Amino acid sequence: MEFERKVEDIEEKIKELEIFAEEKGIALGEEIQKLKDFRDQFLEEIYKEVTDWDKVSISRHPMRPHTVDYIEYLVEDFVELHGDRLFRDDPAIIGGLGKIDGKSMMIIGHEKGRGTEDKIKRNFGMANPEGYRKALRLFHMAERFHLPVLVLIDTAGAYPGLEAEQNGQGEAIARNLMEMSDLRTPIISVVIGEGGSGGAIGLGVADKVYMLEHSTYSVISPEGCAAILFKDSSKAPEAAQNLKISAQNLLRLEVIDGIIPESLGGAHRDPERTAINLKNVILSSFSELEQIPLEDLLENRYNKFRKMGKFKTKIEGE
């Protein structure tokens, strides 16, 4: 986005001043702080006006933290578990056991990868059926050992290739929806970047569903929606607005349960700060959910998704 380049210019000037001050032994702290204050004020003003289409770009930012980043920032003693025990491992979904502030849990999430080689290996975070079946295996493991489940969602969608369809992509996602709805342990899902289509909802049936402040969650990408409805992919910004894909719109529509604040300027500007905000919500939510009797938890989860889809009917003459 254009404003990102302006911010980068300001930050470059800050770095130049810091290097110059260190090399020459000159006190430039006041001038550097003024530039930092100007940058922060500029970001605050810009982010007050971002549209749903802007949020699509922010959610796809190449430096936005991924699942592996949040695991690195938050999780102690993480042990990754591989394979679906039916076909093979899918690197597009990672999962394993770990602790956050000493609390044991199962952690599962999409992973888009960093760098060309890693992105290809992880199929850009677009999981095949074996990825969803691996996640399902880990869900049941968590249930067996009475561990809560944390899911981090970040995908443009499930992989739509021929092989994926031949191997049962639709069935794998549908089975996850069914099994997660009745999983006898607390589940929290957080959309940390893109939450696209069935690829996202295949890991999204949870007691609490949160979104990071500038993430997106939608049945289809704005580009795909514009191509289908308007026959013109250049109308993606209009489609994004109509899809109501931002966290703020989805909270108002009661599709999600809350919004987790990001660092100023987006999670990519201060991942550790965003990770701390994420941790606080995760721990407080699990603490709340674990106080609810299991049968009531399952009933609440079922009702949560059954009541979605409110609409108003306009009566003729009104």
TrEMBL record:
Enzyme class: transferase
Protein role: Component of the acetyl coenzyme A carboxylase (ACC) complex. First, biotin carboxylase catalyzes the carboxylation of biotin on its carrier protein (BCCP) and then the CO(2) group is transferred by the carboxyltransferase to acetyl-CoA to form malonyl-CoA.
Name of the molecule in the record: Acetyl-coenzyme A carboxylase carboxyl transferase subunit alpha
Pathway(s): Lipid metabolism; malonyl-CoA biosynthesis; malonyl-CoA from acetyl-CoA: step 1/1
Catalysis performed (reactions): N(6)-carboxybiotinyl-L-lysyl-[protein] + acetyl-CoA = N(6)-biotinyl-L-lysyl-[protein] + malonyl-CoA
A Pfam family it matches: ACCA
UniProt keyword list: ATP-binding, Cytoplasm, Fatty acid biosynthesis, Fatty acid metabolism, Ligase, Lipid biosynthesis, Lipid metabolism, Nucleotide-binding, Transferase
GO cellular component: acetyl-CoA carboxylase complex
Entries under Gene3D superfamilies matching the protein: 2-enoyl-CoA Hydratase, Chain A, domain 1
Coiled-coil region(s): none
Family: Belongs to the AccA family.
Membrane-spanning ranges: none
Domain CoA carboxyltransferase C-terminal intervals: 35-288
EC nos: 2.1.3.15
Quaternary structure, from the entry: Acetyl-CoA carboxylase is a heterohexamer composed of biotin carboxyl carrier protein (AccB), biotin carboxylase (AccC) and two subunits each of ACCase subunit alpha (AccA) and ACCase subunit beta (AccD).
